[in-house]
């Protein structure tokens, strides 16, 4: 059987789609007996095309050059619950990964090797040796960053020929540029699909509920089993890790999303060095203020992050950030007003709570930031020294 982690999201306000459509956002990996993942004929592959801009390579060229560095990741879980007779069940998750260096380090998604806080008891990495030939190698789970949905696996570099994939710069990704995805959709190993970058700057939700900023949206076909695989640009460089889809029916609807490779590299560097990832923390609970809500409350701002809560002894508390103290309802939605509205950070306009979260995510504990806030109709700047985000938040 296939087990999916899914949740409903209303897609509006520039989040991940149109306001009147409700989609299922699904982390794309297979869970269960791997032999059961191939249940129907393969979905039709989108037409292959050749990019006509820049120095781009065709999907065929990219596959021939890089597919040897894309792997299948099989994660064994000692316990996935109990059956109807109370017996402990075990299972295996199937996902994708890719080699990043000659030392044997491999990037994949955290949700491929961790489920509900339980890390895999064992990891097997399957390499594509050409044609129908594969090689299975034992993998070591180096670390997991659930907040960015990134995990790092290592294999013995002497046990297999490695073909590291070149990493690109996700900050330079352009809407409309051609991309390909290589992975193991529905257990159909080492498949390639092609498309374009549909959008950038998407806010994705990590398995622990944290926001992953600057996500990449693509119409390249992505399905269960693609999780952890590379999204590759026309120059043959990895720009993202395929992570989830938005779908009305649970399958590919041309709405795939990837964790930006710059975010993944940040996690990779820390996991490789220490086995864990630190995130900066400001210590506030926030809501997004739109122009309509702001006018209802006679605020000067047209948008921003409304501070509804300040955690005790947090950086925000020490800096004097003010929380709301009055709960009101506007168009069926509750707001805690009376507190600061953060409208800019280090001079960068902040239009929503997600934008502030994304800004903080890119900082390090100990960094100082200047927040511009509206308080009681007046604007002021407040300096905040960020701390390390607590593990339980």
Q: Please summarize the sheet with the most strands.
A: 6 strands, antiparallel, barrel
Helix proportion of residues, in percent? 10-25%
Question: Termini distance?
Answer: 32 Å
Spatially, the strands of the biggest sheet line up as 12-13-14-17-16-15
Explain the overall architecture:
It is built from 6 helices and 27 strands. By secondary structure, it is mainly β. It has 2 domains: 269 residues, Beta Barrel (Thrombin, subunit H), CATH 2.40.10; 109 residues, Pdz3 Domain. The strands form 6 sheets. It has a 6-stranded antiparallel barrel. A hairpin with an 8-residue loop joins strand 16 and strand 17. The radius of gyration is 22 Å and the shape is elongated.
Keywords:
single chain; 393 residues; mainly beta; Thrombin, subunit H; Pdz3 Domain; 2 domains; six-stranded antiparallel barrel; 27 strands
Summarize the structure.
By secondary structure, the chain is mainly beta. It has helices at 59-66, 110-113, 261-274, 291-296, 315-319, 353-361, and strands at residues 6-10, 22-27, 30-32, 70-77, 91-99, 105-108, 114-115, 118-119, 122-128, 134-145, 150-154, 178-183, 191-205, 211-218, 230-233, 238-247, 256-260, 280-281, 284-289, 304-310, 326-330, 333-337, 341-345, 348-349, 368-375, 378-385, 387-388. Strands 12-13-14-17-16-15 form a 6-stranded antiparallel barrel. It has a 6-stranded antiparallel β-barrel with strand order 4-5-6-11-10-9.
């Amino acid at each position: 059987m296939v087990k999916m982690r899914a949740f409903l999201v209303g897609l509006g306000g520039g989040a991940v789609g149109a306001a009147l459509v409700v989609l299922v956002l699904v982390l794309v990996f297979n869970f269960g007996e791997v032999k059961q993942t191939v249940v129907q004929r393969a979905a039709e592959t989108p037409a292959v095309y050749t990019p006509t801009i820049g120095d781009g390579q065709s999907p065929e060229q990219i596959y021939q050059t890089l597919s040897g560095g894309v792997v299948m990741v099989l994660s064994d879980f000692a316990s996935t619950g109990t059956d109807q007779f109370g017996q402990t069940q075990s299972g295996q998750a199937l996902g994708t990964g890719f080699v990043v260096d000659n030392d044997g380090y491999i990037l994949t998604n955290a949700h491929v090797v961790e489920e509900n806080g339980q890390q895999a008891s064992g990891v097997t990495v399957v390499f594509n040796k050409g044609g129908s030939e594969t090689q299975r190698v034992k993998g070591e789970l180096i670390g997991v960053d659930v907040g960015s949905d990134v995990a790092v696996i290592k294999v013995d570099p002497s046990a297999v020929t490695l073909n590291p994939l070149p990493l690109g710069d996700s900050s330079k990704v352009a809407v409309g540029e051609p991309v390909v995805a290589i992975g193991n959709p529905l257990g159909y190993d080492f498949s390639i699909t092609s498309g374009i970058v549909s959008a950038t700057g998407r806010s994705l939700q990590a398995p622990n509920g944290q926001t992953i900023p600057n996500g990449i949206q693509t119409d390249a076909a992505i399905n269960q089993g693609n999780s952890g695989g590379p999204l590759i640009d026309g120059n043959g460089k990895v720009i993202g890790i395929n992570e989830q889809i938005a779908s009305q029916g649970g399958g590919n609807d041309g709405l795939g999303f990837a964790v930006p490779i710059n975010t993944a590299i940040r996690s990779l560097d820390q996991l490789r060095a220490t086995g864990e990832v630190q995130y900066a923390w400001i210590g506030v609970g926030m809501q997004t203020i739109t122009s309509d809500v702001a006018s209802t409350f006679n605020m000067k701002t047209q948008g921003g992050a409304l501070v509804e809560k300040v955690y005790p002894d947090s950086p925000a508390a020490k800096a004097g950030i003010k929380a709301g103290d009055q709960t009101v309802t506007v168009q069926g939605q509750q707001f805690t007003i009376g507190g600061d509205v953060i409208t800019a950070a280090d001079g960068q306009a902040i239009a929503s709570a997600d934008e502030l979260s994304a800004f903080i995510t890119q900082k390090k504990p100990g960094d100082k930031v200047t927040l511009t806030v509206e308080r009681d109709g007046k604007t002021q700047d407040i300096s905040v020294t960020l701390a390390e985000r607590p593990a339980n938040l």
